[in-house]
Design a protein that fits this description.
It contains nine helices and 17 strands. By secondary structure, it is an alpha+beta fold.
Length: about 375
C-alpha cells in the first residue's frame, strides 16, 4: 500500500490522503482479491492494492489506464455505477495482453471513486481452449463414426459380393480401431490435463520405464524395419508415476516411428542434469518445420493432417506428453530440422533432489524387431 500526502491549503504540513477515506474502507480494500484503486476528486490515487500496482494499472499516484480514468470521470459526474472490460499490455512473458473485468462506483460524497479490476485473462484462455477442444473433438469423432456408418451401408448393399464385404469389413476394423485410440487418448488427457501434481508419486526407475515403452512400440517399429535403441546412463530415477511416464515415452516413440522412413532407428536415452533427469527420444525422420514447432503440443494440431490420418494418429499424443511433464513438475522441449529428424526431451525432477550418474550403459538395448 502507498499513502499519498496532499499539501494543505494553508501551506502547513501535508496531511495523509488515507485519512480522508471513509472509516473501514481501507480495511475492506486490503482483503479484496481484485485489483482495487481509490481515486480522489482530482483523479489522483489515494489507495491502491498491491495487485493493481503489479499489473501496472497504477504508477505512483497515477492511474495508468486511460479507459479507467474516463470511466471514473463519468461515474463521478453522474454517480452511476459502471461496468466494462479493458485490455492492457501483458505483464507475463509471452502474454500479449491482460483482460480485466472492471467495475467503477462512487465512494462517498467527496468525489472519490472506487475502481475494481478482475483479471480475466486465464479464464478467457480456458474458455477459448474449451471451445476449440469441443469443436475439434466433434470433428475428430464425426469422421470415423461417419465412415463406419457409410461402410456398414456399403456392406449391406454388397452382401452378394464376398470380396467386397471382406474389403469393407477391413476398413470398418481400421476406423473402429482409430475411434478406440481416440477415445482412449481423450480419457488419458482428461485425467492429467488439469496440471495438477501426481496424486501418489514415488521413485520411478527410468530404465524400466524406457524398456516398457519400447516393448509397447515394438510391433509398429518392426513393421517399418525401424530399430528401437535404449542408451544413456543406467540407474536413474525420477519422482513421479511410472504408468504416466511410460505413457509419455510410448507416445514420443510412436510419434518418432510414424514420421520416420523405413530402415532407420529411434534412440531413447537418459542422462542426469543436476536436479532433473533428461529423457530424449531422437529419430531420423522428416523433421518439423520451425513455424509449426510452437504448436505441436496443442490438442489435435497436425503438421501434416493427411499423413497423420494415414498413420492412424489421433493428434493427442504430444498434448498428453506435455501434460504428463507438467503433472510431474517438469517440461518437454523439441529440437527439429526438416530432413534431419527430431529430438524430444523430457526434463523431470530427479528422485532425491539430484540425479545420480552411475555407470554408463556399455551396450545399448536394441529392441527385437
Amino acid at each position: 500500500m502507498l499513502a499519498i500526502r496532499r499539501q494543505t491549503d494553508k501551506g502547513g504540513e501535508a496531511e495523509p490522503v488515507d485519512d480522508m477515506l471513509s472509516p473501514g474502507v481501507a480495511s475492506v480494500l486490503a482483503v479484496l482479491p481484485s485489483s482495487a484503486v481509490v481515486l480522489d476528486r482530482d483523479d489522483r490515487v489515494m489507495r491502491a492494492s498491491s495487485a493493481a500496482r503489479a499489473f501496472g494499472l497504477v504508477r505512483g499516484d497515477s492511474l495508468m489506464a486511460a479507459e479507467l480514468l474516463a470511466l471514473a470521470r463519468k461515474v463521478r459526474s453522474d454517480g452511476e455505477i459502471r461496468e466494462s472490460e479493458i485490455e492492457t499490455a501483458g505483464r507475463k512473458f509471452g502474454q500479449e495482453s491482460t483482460t480485466f473485468a472492471v467495475r467503477v462506483a462512487p465512494l462517498g460524497s467527496n468525489g472519490q471513486v472506487l475502481v475494481l479490476a478482475e483479471d480475466q485473462t486465464e479464464r478467457r484462455q480456458v474458455e477459448a481452449v474449451r471451445r476449440d477442444f469441443v469443436a475439434n473433438v466433434s470433428h475428430e469423432l464425426k469422421t470415423p463414426v461417419g465412415a463406419l456408418s457409410l461402410l456398414a451401408e456399403t456392406i449391406q448393399d454388397a452382401a452378394d459380393d464376398p470380396e467386397a464385404v471382406t474389403r469393407f469389413a477391413g476398413r470398418m476394423q481400421h476406423e473402429a480401431a482409430r475411434l478406440t485410440y481416440l477415445v482412449q487418448d481423450l480419457i488419458t488427457l482428461s485425467k492429467i490435463q488439469g496440471g495438477e501434481p501426481v496424486p501418489t508419486p514415488g521413485p520411478v526407475p527410468i530404465d524400466e520405464a524406457v524398456h516398457e515403452a519400447i516393448d509397447r512400440c515394438n510391433t509398429k517399429a518392426s513393421a517399418k524395419d525401424i530399430t528401437l535403441v535404449a542408451g544413456g546412463t543406467d540407474g536413474l530415477r525420477i519422482w513421479g508415476d511410472d504408468e504416466l511416464l511410460v505413457t509419455a515415452l510410448r507416445n514420443l516413440i510412436d510419434n518418432a516411428v510414424a514420421y520416420s522412413p523405413e530402415h532407420t532407428r529411434v534412440v531413447v536415452s537418459a542422462r542426469p542434469a543436476g536436479r532433473t533427469v533428461e529423457v530424449s527420444v531422437s529419430d531420423q525422420g522428416i523433421g518439423i518445420p520451425e513455424s509449426a514447432q510452437e504448436r505441436i503440443f496443442e490438442r489435435f494440431f497436425r503438421v501434416d493432417a493427411a499423413r497423420s490420418r494415414a498413420t492412424g494418429g489421433t493428434g493427442l499424443g504430444l498434448a498428453i506428453v506435455k501434460h504428463v511433464a507438467v503433472a510431474h513438475g517438469g517440461e518437454v522441449t523439441v529440437w527439429s530440422k526438416e530432413g534431419s529428424g527430431s529430438t524430444f526431451t523430457l526434463r523431470l525432477p530427479a528422485f532425491g533432489g539430484t540425479a545420480v550418474a552411475e555407470q554408463r550403459t556399455t551396450s545399448p538395448l536394441e529392441a527385437t524387431k
